[in-house]
Amino acid sequence: MRRTRSTAALVAAAVVAGGLALASPASADPTPAGTFRQLVGVGSDTTQDVLNALAGDAPGYAGSAVKSASGAGIASYDAVEPGTGSTTSKIKTRTDGPSFLRPNGSGKGRLALSMSLTGDKFPDGTGVAVKDQVDFARSSGGPSTSGNALTYIPFARDAVGVAVRGSALDTLTVDQLHDIYAGNLKQVNGQDVHPYIPQNGSGTRSFFLGTLGLNDSTIDPKIPTVQENQANDAVTVDGALVPFSVGSWIAQINGVAPDHSKTAANGGAHLASVQLPGGKGATDPVTTVDGRLEPVRGYYENATFGRDVYNVVPSRAIDPTSIFFDKDLYDVFVTDGGHTAKIATDEAQSVIADFGFMNESYNGSVNPAKHAKLGGLEQSGIDSKAPAAPALKATPGTGKLALTWTAPAAPALPVTDYRVTLTRADGTVVAAKDVPVATTSYTFSGLADGKYTATVAAANLNGTGAPATWTGTVNVKSASTTKATAAATAYGKTPKVAVTVTGPKGVVPGGKVTVKEGSTTLGTGTLNSSGKVSVGLSNHLKVATHKLTVSYAGDSKLNTSSATVSLKITKAAPAVSVTRPASVKHTARAKVTVKVTATGTTPAGTVRIYQGSKVIATGTLKSGKVTITLPKLSRGKHTLRATYAGSSTVNSKSSANFTIKST
């Protein structure tokens, strides 16, 4: 379990012996002094060194500078003053900007970014206004406030370890660390412990305490504070321990980052192995490959001490639809669709790996489902509400829609812009526009006929508020009127729907009409020069009352219109004829042939032969005809009739009386 300590000492010794190759580089604000670049970043010292390298300012990395498509580069300012370690020095980030206190740590970096947006004084009312002085914040932790103002873009994977001195602390558990920092555990394996904690505002401090289930209120207040990721001032005696970015430890011991820890490492400081929850044994945060430290993936990927590190940007600055869209910031930090962040290229990720971080596929993601996070402005006590809805008035015109609105009541954070959106009835977005706060009107033109919904929403730094909404119709053509009539029709005959379409005076409708029952099309027709058409339908519609919709498709001058009409289909009226012999012997059986006809259909069903009220024979029609054999008739004259019983489509009917003489 002492492999980590041995590794650290071995590498540190190699660094001392080979100082020529791995001499500790100096910290690096933008160089040379007085250099100003477009994309200014401040905050976490966990990621400051790798960002310095990607800015081209770290020794040996002048050729690694990432730039936007237009050539904008990064200016990354250290958390403490390079060379002196001063936490009270000031920085100047724009040629004509103010000098302000150097933001020390993730929290202070996010605060400076927030105040750069609001124009407030940093770090408080005794400071100076920093409007537009910071473009992004380095952060080793996620948001401390809820909201959508800031997007936390994952940059790489880091882990938090514990730098310790003394073999008694080679292996630690989460419970032991909790009790040490809560002030309840004073010895481990017989060794007195001397815990330290990074400064307030440190992302590593917040993450470490949160992992242990502690916070600034529950940590032992007697624990001394030290600058984050600087072991030389903390891990000086056996029993000393301090939370540490594993990436920063690797970079310092490997000699690619400014040295704040090699003296401690040479004295025996190392990263402890940790019993991770769910693990079967202790896990080392680092391993040694060819004499250099490298991350242990299992430790970095573990949810307890593994963490993403972020570049935090204003959400609106990376929204291509916003008037505040910053193409240079987007180019450098955002991977989205087919666009790859400059900071996520193979070359940039090689630099990231040099500084002890693990590269992940989600570098540059702005999707919360892929490790990105959203957060609010970091000022305490600031109003976090988005604006209320403006008062909206819409005026449809010929092929256009004019919108005007008045600003909502002023919120604590003022309105900065308005989002105007137009959608069709099916939800398809016709157009979306972001306009400056001074603009209170917008006109959509070149619109086709149809129903639309327009929304206008006010936005401020907290996000976009509730929209004001209008829904209505925009017309390019004149209105038309459709009328239809349909006479009751017997089954088998062709029903017809008489349609008349009218428009404004002097406009003769043209085009097609369609007759439907529900979703089924029954017939179509083309209007004549008078705007009329008779649409013939199937002669086999069900006997019933049909509710039909008659739709006019419109033409180049007229809009569509429709009407409903009822069509009653009745049963067909049949004719019944009989062919029979005039006489028959009383010992024989006469045969009669009955034929039933109806227009447009062939009747089917039963035919009965009556003598008076008595049925004497029955037959079934086949192709509208049946021959029926009668029973033997007694001598004399018999008066008979044939009766068709009818069907679902044809009425019943009796023939004329006929006689047969039996001899």
UniProtKB/TrEMBL annotation:
Alphabetical list of PROSITE patterns matching this protein: FN3
Keyword Hydrolase: yes
Region (Disordered): 81-108
Record-level Gene Ontology MF annotations: hydrolase activity, acting on glycosyl bonds
Cleavable signal peptide: 1-28
A Pfam family matched in the record: Big_3_5
Keyword Cell wall biogenesis/degradation on entry: no
Keywords: Carbohydrate metabolism, Glycosidase, Hydrolase, Polysaccharide degradation, Signal
Domain of life of the native organism: Bacteria
Annotated GO biological process: polysaccharide catabolic process
Protein name per the record: Uncharacterized protein
Organism name: Streptomyces nodosus
